[in-house]
Specification:
Elements lengths: L7 H4 L10 E6 L4 H16 L7 E7 L5 H15 L6 H8 L2 E5 L5 H18 L4 E6 L6 H10 L14 E4 L7 H14 L5 E3 L7 H12 L12 E9 L8 H5 L3 H18 L8 H13 L12 E7 L1 E3 L2 E3 L17 E7 L9 E7 L6 E8 L19 E7 L3 E10 L5 E10 H5 L6 H11 L8 H21 L5 E4 L6 H8 L9
Parallel strand pairs: 1-2, 1-4, 2-3, 4-5, 5-6, 7-12, 8-17
Antiparallel strand pairs: 7-13, 8-11, 9-10, 11-12, 13-14, 14-15, 15-16
Helix pairs in contact: 2-3, 2-13, 6-7, 7-14, 10-11, 10-14, 11-14
Bound molecules: NADP nicotinamide-adenine-dinucleotide phosphate.
Length: 512
């Protein structure tokens, strides 16, 4: 198998040998994501010697920025946001090959200038380079950028050869099924699917990748990973922050679009999918799509599978914080949910009858993302629940952020002459086992795209399958307006309606 197609799990740090000479072009290079994540990711890849020897970084945006100024901005971004301190030896080498092209995203001539700029870089080193386009702009300009990459010939550079052009597309990937399909149609009019890397940065997180390793590299889990042994699964993506100054953006989004449809569904897919035939990108993504397609349509309305709410004022960290409707830029009668919870039923041989409960919200008690696998209780013949026997269901929890790791709750004997029992927790923390300086998600993802490994990216049909599940919910909510909107105090674990959603199945939300 060629290096470029092998999965990182198989080849470890040797992957840098696979990246051909590359120019990364960032559209929206003056933006927040570029400064906070992309530039630091490039720097840290350089630090780890994972960039190809011939590497170029080109920023693109509407405002003219001289090369020197862009390099200064990038240096500042590394100082402020990188997980490692700026290292002059590493950064100077990258900065020497960093430049900026100004132009409109819908301006065809600007893309011709960009093409010339890239050709000049190739002439300078006397080698062909692949181009990796990173579209890091608001979604309103995704289509013009894509179409201009097509019209200028940049998308088709070296097509059919290993160093063909590639494109990374940021989220949000559409806002419902129709818009996601339209975006896919635009993409496919310009790029072939294998050139496209739809990003969900959750997939770049260590623990998310570790989920596959835990499932398929340990003999003890897979035999239990089904409806015979698992009672239910809970996936939580909770934020402490409110909408802050981004109210205008959030009003157009909400918890379902912002978190559930993308990040949370990626976690569902990786938890529930069948073992792929290999770790090849298509094999993994085929299994993810299959399991997403097995999810039953969601019942909406009273007694249904979905619930939504907005945060009200509440105490957080000893301070009173505002409710959603009082935040800046939020309509007085806003019907945008800041919390959503769902009960998913996966109708296949492995999972029938095992509810997958998922929830995501802002202004919740704690910032945490986790997947908790709750096993069935042991039969109570020997140790029936009592004061002495505080029996817990075994729970395997993958903590994705913060403090990445894995814990397993077992029942253990309390030391002493009397037989007493209580749940005990076995913990594995990345920071204690491997040190705290683990790579950021964007480092892994930019490197994988450079190499041509799409395993940790979303395929077009995967995005559409997820939207197909949630679009009816969004439409029903849009019709209902504020009717049925729950409320929860900021700093709590969510609304009463979400508790009721689980209570019908005799379950309760964990407090991770
Ligand atoms: N920021 C994050 O933490 C984050 C996290 C996950 C995903 N994302 C996604 O990443 C993408 C970029 O995010 P960002 O926070 O960097 O966005 P941003 O700062 O709002 O915009 C990035 C750049 O795009 C250009 N731009 C902004 N508004 C535009 C408009 N209306 N029309 C045309 N160009 C416009 C601007 O560059 P010029 O004026 O120089 O052209 C701007 O600097 C978005 O799709 C976002 O959803 C961001």
């Amino acid at each position: 198998m060629p290096d470029a197609q092998r999965h990182p799990f198989l080849q470890g740090l040797s992957k840098h040998r696979g990246a051909p000479p590359t120019v990364v072009v960032i559209f929206g290079a003056s933006g927040d994501l570029t400064a906070r994540k992309l530039i630091p990711a490039v720097f840290n890849l350089g630090y780890d010697n994972l960039l190809p020897a011939d590497f170029f970084l080109v920023g693109f945006g509407r405002k003219p920025i001289p090369d020197e100024e862009f390099r200064k901005i990038a240096t500042g971004a590394i100082k402020e946001f990188s997980r490692r301190e700026l290292n002059a030896d590493v950064w100077d080498r990258i900065a020497a090959n960093t430049s900026y092209v100004a132009g409109g995203y819908d301006e065809r001539a600007a893309f011709d200038r960009l093409a010339k700029h890239i050709a000049a870089l190739e002439t300078r080193i006397g080698r062909e380079v692949q181009t990796l386009f990173y579209i890091s702009t608001p979604p309103s300009v995704f289509a013009p950028i894509l179409l201009n990459l097509g019209a200028s010939g940049l998308a088709a550079r070296y097509l059919g050869r290993r160093h063909h052009s590639k494109v990374i597309i940021e989220k949000p990937f559409g806002r419902d099924l129709i818009s996601a399909r339209a975006l896919n149609t635009t993409i496919r009019s310009v790029f072939e699917e294998h050139q496209v890397y739809r990003i969900d940065h959750y997939l770049g997180k260590e623990t998310v990748q570790d989920l596959l390793v835990q499932r398929f590299a340990n003999a003890i889990f897979e035999p239990l990973w089904n409806r015979n042994f698992i009672d239910s699964v809970q996936i939580t993506v909770a934020e402490e922050v409110g909408v802050g100054t981004r109210g205008g953006y959030y009003e157009q989004s909400g918890a379902l679009r912002d978190m559930i449809q993308n990040h949370t569904m990626q976690l569902v897919a990786l938890t529930a999918m069948e073992p792929p035939v290999s770790l090849d990108a298509e094999a993994v993504r085929d299994e993810k799509v299959k399991v997403l397609k097995s999810i039953q349509p969601l019942k909406i309305g009273a007694g249904g599978d979905v619930t939504r709410a907005q945060y009200a004022a509440g105490m957080m960290g000893g301070k009173m914080v505002k409710g959603y409707l009082e935040e800046e830029g939020i309509a007085a009668q806003s019907a945008t949910e800041t919390y959503a919870a769902m009960r998913l039923s996966i109708n296949n041989w492995r999972w029938q009858g095992v509810p997958f409960y998922i929830r995501s919200g802002k202004r919740m008690a704690r910032r945490v993302s986790e997947i908790a696998i709750q096993f069935k209780r042991p039969p109570g013949t020997l140790f029936a629940e009592s004061d002495r026997f505080n029996l817990a269901a075994n729970t395997l929890a993958f903590q994705i952020q913060p403090d990445e790791g894995l814990s397993l709750v077992l029942n253990g004997k309390v030391p002493g002459l009397e037989t007493r029992m209580q749940p005990v927790k076995m913990n594995f923390r990345y920071s204690t086992t491997f040190g705290s300086n683990t790579p950021e998600a964007y480092e892994r993802l930019v490197l994988d795209a450079m190499i041509g490994d799409g395993t940790l990216f979303i395929r077009g049909d995967e995005a559409e399958t997820s939207w197909a599940l949630y679009t009816p919910v969004l439409e029903a909510w849009a019709t209902a307006g504020r009717e049925g909107m729950g409320s929860y105090a900021a700093g709590s674990w969510g609304p009463a309606e979400a508790e009721a959603l689980l209570a019908t199945g005799k379950h309760a939300w964990r407090q991770p």
